[in-house]
Amino acid sequence: MRVISCVELGPPEKLQIEERPDLGPLPGHVLVDVKACGVYFVDTLMVQGLYQIRPEPPFTPGGEVAGVVRAVGEGVETFSAGDRVIAMPGMNGFAEQVLLPPERLIPMPKGLSFEQASGFYQAYCTAQFALDNRAQLQAGETVLVLGAAGGVGLAAVDVAKQMGARVIAAASSPEKLAACRKQGADEVILYSEEDLKLRAKELSGGGVDVVYDPVGGDYSEPALRALAPGGRHLVIGFAGGEIPRVRWNLILLKQCQVVGVDWGGWGSRNREANAALFSGLAARVEEGQLAPVPPTVYPLEEAARALRDLMERRVVGKAALAVG
Ligand SMILES: NC(=O)c1ccc[n+]([C@@H]2O[C@H](COP(=O)([O-])OP(=O)(O)OC[C@H]3O[C@@H](n4cnc5c(N)ncnc54)[C@H](OP(=O)(O)O)[C@@H]3O)[C@@H](O)[C@H]2O)c1
Asked: Does ligand 1 lie within 6 Å of residue 216's CB atom?
């Protein structure tokens, strides 16, 4: 099988493609033929040694894949050969096969392509956990989504609309804003050129109820300043590279909440609740209430190009690697 290997920490161009022996079934494990790998911002950090988890090279990146079960090992009863699944290996996903315990697999929602499914789980669970569990978003409230054409951003636009919110999407290019509109955003802000705080206040009629912020950097403070009294600013991530330092008097004056979101940590401590959260999302996809957009697809051997495009903000929506 072919595998993408990070032999040395650094730019994605250092990644290599290797030929390795096929994997075989193992007791208590499921062998999956990978059809598509989701490409996440976290993968760009991991290969550079910039993520909080720093595996020693050589290692294979790739936290989430979609594929078909080839074989199950002794003792596995929850999956069978031929099942379509989403698998969360954490890493080792940029490969033609993965071997995992069944707890790391979930059935693929019907109606999604392998490419769509490979970027669904983390992106949509993060959006749902943030907007529902953490912000307790109510129908009729206004949400400002930063980095709205990115992976977790576009998922948030979809989830927030489905929850009955009014969505203002902010992104850095007209092409990205068009993708946000297509996903259902009511209003858009070109935050690379327009005044984010001013426009968000204008478009929301005085202030937004929730900010969904996976970008950080210079965008966080104007977004926080655009909150209505009692608003919630969801801290999702720092794709912009800088962790913002906001003065606390702002939080006092605005009487707002700054709400941390760590879906991965919560999910591993609350497995049943997380499984229920995912089942709810899968059901809404199957009923046509949520509509994950097809990603930009790269062949497996072009993993470095996919990561580079993500790092340079060239990807609109999600990216995926097609395998096989
Ligand atoms: N808290 C959680 O539970 C959780 C879960 C999953 C992911 N995350 C985090 O969420 C963040 C986004 O992840 P993602 O997979 O959605 O990433 P992504 O698809 O690359 O989207 C990130 C967006 O950030 C914007 N951006 C601004 N400055 C950037 C820069 N210098 N480099 C790259 N992008 C930049 C880009 O939009 P514009 O070009 O429009 O600005 C881009 O679309 C990451 O920090 C990730 O670690 C957090």
From this structure: no
Rounded distance from Cα 151 to ligand 1 centre (Å): 7
Alpha carbon distance 308, 314 (integer Å): 9
Within the chain, which residue ranges are assigned CATH 3.90.180.10?
2-120+292-322
Asked if residue 212 has its Cβ within 6 Å of ligand 1, the reply is no
Q: Within the chain, which residues score under 70 in pLDDT?
A: none
CA 156, chain centre distance (Å)? 9
pLDDT in tens, 238-264: 999 899 998 999 999 999 999 999 999
Q: Which helix (H) or strand (E) holds 68?
A: strand 65-72
Residue 237 near ligand 1, beta carbon < 6 Å: yes
pTM of the model: 0.96
Output the pLDDT for position 94: 98
Asked whether the beta carbons of 184 and 153 are under 8 A apart, the reply is no
At the top level of CATH, the class of 2-120+292-322 is alpha beta
Of all residues in the chain, what percent carry a pLDDT higher than 70? 100
